[in-house]
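Q: Is it fine to ask for two folds in a single conversation?
A: Yes, each is treated on its own. Send the first.
Q: Here.
A: Result:
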Amino acid sequence: MLRKLPKIELHCHLDGSVRLNTIIEVAKQENIELPSFEVETLDSLIKVPEDCTSLEEYLKRFDLPNKIMQSKSSLKRIAFELLEDCARENVKYIEVRFAPSLHRQKGLSLEEIIESVLEGMHEAEKIYDIKSNLIIGCMRSMSVEEAFSVVNAGEKYLNRGVVAVDLCGIELEGFASIYKEPIDLARSLGYRVTIHAGEGASGKNVLDAINLLGAERIGHGIRTKDTNEAYDLAKAKKIVFEMCPTSNVQTKAINNFSKHPFYNFYKDDMLVTISTDNRTVSDIDLTNELNIIFDEFNMGIEEYSKIYLNAVDACFADSNTKDWLRSLI
């Protein structure tokens, strides 16, 4: 049933959603060395194992796909293929996110990197019944100066596909205060703001992401359930949670699906949406992600409609796109 329904994906990383065959083909075309050129071997190296112990271990799975995402042609191809994969399961709108700084190993400028990804997305939109926008991420492992560079590089693409800024990567306590100035700059330029927080560290980071960084949406936010002040503030401000249950179980942000706070948030009228996080690394698509959570909590079409409309309201698309998305449900 869910495969046929229209879907919206608000939290999906480009480098975590690369086809295995594409990694092999690009590596051969660009003479890039891989540990193996066999799909089965790459599968075991890129997809997260069942015994993954942490977010830090999970993030190591991105090293290999990023190795082949260093040319304009590969970035364009991978962005196109992500939208193609999404369209095949009736995703009607996706916000792709990626960190441009990770793709400079062969000398591309930040502008060339962003433009290549947008070209792939826009090409897919011409062929498939899907719309998209791009969120550019600043890695929390990088300097504040690099964050400023990313924000400045993306400015020329605002209203041309780029809609928002994010902070992503390994999460340490208190990161928000470090990046306040570049995120303030982004907001002043017209970027919308979504922040990874409360995934690998405490709910205090969610509180800071809202108060210090002006986050409108929170990526994951699992630990919000343990911090009353953050929970109450998020509810009062109608902050939207981009929840990715499979990824959260894999990174041990939560022990199992039954303990995931998604349904309790939903029942308490918190604004929740469901996404994949990383389609290849987590070995999941949005249909199966929804199936897992709906089976776990015995949810039905009425609940699905509410979550879908949450995503429509929360997305960073223009009003015409939102009207179109609403008309589909």
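Q: Second one now.
A: Result:
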Amino acid sequence: MQARTPYSVAAGALLLAVSCWGMAPVATRYLLTDLTPIQLILIRFAISTILLLPPLLQLRGQHWSRAKIGLAILCGLLNSIGYNLIVAFGLHFIAASLGGILIATEPIWILLLSLLITHERPHWSVLLGFVVAAIGIGVGTLLGNTSDISLTGTQIFGAGLTLLAAFMWSAYTVLIRPLTAKYGASRCTALTTFIGTLPLFVFYTPQVATNVLHLNVYGWLALCLLTVGSTVIATMLWNYGVAAMPGSQAGLFLYLVPLMSVVGGALFLHEVITAGVLISGVLILTGVCIAQARQFMRQRFPREPLKYV
């Protein structure tokens, strides 16, 4: 069993994780000019598994019950197939703006699954922060560019796949917590990544290696950002953080992902930040801060027991 993690450390880990994931679309958009979505996912997970071999080998000799093994397999498949592969297909059929809206439902699914599976009862401040951040997402949606969203058959199919992927990641977030608390974030990340990579090799063709070898310097930098930053470090930090606080509270950090994507797009792709995006960002940050304030204050200013003389 891992030692109790200070709240500030857990929150910092989650913040770094969503920062990496927020920058990932910038690298993904660049790489998809040379790789297909399936090729990119396969390469990401294959390289990540190699990088995670040291913590994976540390699991040798540890006792795992059948229930824990089954849970690890489920989490690995939820990560690679359930989220990454399904979302790649889903986003192929819908507009990026609609995809962002659907993926932003992840904190809602995490809250519901936490109530159903772990029977969490979030504090009112978490619920208030949840509502404020959700309004921020709604404002960004209404004031954003949604002219390319339509209700055609392919859009509905793609939207269904993307929504299913968001649900799968939320299930991964809730189910990985007991494994991480017992075996550690790095080991659980290594094991679930390895398990999730194996079925992806069904999609391997010699063209995958050819396309990767023809990447330029910027392509390799983008690939390193996705593998080392997003798949390895960010997932490890996320697993570490969610093991130390309620799932509903941790899930709120996912609302920061689109905000980080906007910042990354402005910095590296020279995309314009509109007034609607600024208002949305302020509301999202406010909601996340409200949800975290109570626990932050309790750690910063712990109450001392009353002493009666």
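Q: Anything structural to flag on that second result?
A: Two points. Residues 7-298 form one domain. The longest helix spans residues 153-183.
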